[in-house]
Amino acid sequence: MAPVVARLVSESKPRVVPGKLLVKEFWFEVPLDHSKPDAKTVRLFARSAVKHEKPVVESSPAEVIQRPFLVFLQGGPGFGTPAPQDSPLSKHMLDRGYELLMLDQRGTGFSCPVSANTLEIVGGPREQADYLKHFRADTLVRDSEAVRLCLTKDYPPEKKKWSTFGQSFGGLMTLTYLSLAPEGLRECFITGGLAALDKGPEEVYQSTYRKVMERNSAYYKKYPEDIATVKWLADKIRDMGGDTGIPLPAGGFLTVQRLMTLGLSLGMHGGIDTVHNVILRMKGELDQFGVFTRFTLNTLEQDSWDIAPIYSLLHEPCWCYGPGVAGNWAAERVGKSLDEFQWLRKDWSGPASLGDKPLCFSGEMIYPFLFETCAELIKLKETAQILAEYDAWEPLYDIEQLGKNEVPVYAASYNDMYVDIDNARVTATRIKGIKVFETNVLFHNALRARAEDVIPQLLALRDDTID
């Protein structure tokens, strides 16, 4: 089948934004299902950016320089791209001669965003699940290729290929890109995204739970008083919320299980302090007033689960690397088998059963109870169950193709709670020609928190300046 080319719906005039960037905005149309190019379409949004330099003499349109594109592949799944002026890539990459493209993946940002009410338009749970099956990395790569072919149709051959920069899930997407459409790629940068190529959700979570336990140990070592405080809060939440939990402002419920998902932050720079500050505030409010303030309840509710529902709906499916692999709530099944996560079990008797042991926070795990306690996800419970049981996924990776890869790949691999380092090392051995900067002093969000420690290292790999 011939590759689909996106239809350019609109392109804005360049505008100067803070940071001395010249930014354009684009809207594209692509097929919902790339195997049916003449059927239903969805809209994609993107912004491009170059450095704004006011010339002494204005150029004519014919003299406009065509810079090769660097497209940012965002993490998640489920999060839109930042504005170019808010991205560290602008500071580090635009001076290197690229035009930066921030393309919102379908279902995120401005690109046909997924929410309970937009999915309701699609139909019932079965129709919603069938729709969302077209929102995984294989389709995102086809979207990207369609946009590339559209934007570069008038470019000279040497500038038609583009570079990619994939963070986290964007790294997984890069591996899919290298598998399915390497002809569109000049070079690829990956940060925190060297995922296992042939391990399903259960195997992945067996690895990541070990790292989550390490991060819990680091948390309680830094804040040992929180061992007692977290368990005390858990008891209070059980007393105050009964069987359903404490009502939250937007319609969700605070339960002990929901509280323990605060650990999602533990793998980030500053994450330990983030979790402690929430725990400290909660205890302070109960000590002073016996209730939680709206501010605290709002903080507990404003998390990824409700804001980006696609993150919860498609998280386990993003580890389903091909046909015959289903999620089936792997994170819950693996967690229940571990004594450190007894709170996942229905027969758990409460914090007192732990003795002196702490309550362990979870990490980047999606559980069925989220679809009973999160206001947005409650509406999508049946859809989530259909997706959890589905096992006829298209292949995400071509290991044979990766083994003969000719696209330069430069990766940063971290002391990572979300993408297991041992799995990342194995993946690196299966990609021909890859160069990897590995460190145990940076965490998963280093691209945002420590960009100056990451991007120059990747560029050094590209420029062969290590030796």
Automatic annotation (TrEMBL):
Belongs to the peptidase S33 family. It comes from Anthostomella pinea. GO terms for biological process: proteolysis. InterPro entries: AB_hydrolase_1, AB_hydrolase_fold, Peptidase_S33, Serine_prot/Carboxylest_S33. Keywords: Hydrolase. GO terms for molecular function: peptidase activity. Transmembrane segments: none annotated. This is Uu.00g046670.m01.CDS01. It comes from the Eukaryota. Signal peptide: none annotated. Residues 69-211 form the AB hydrolase-1 domain.
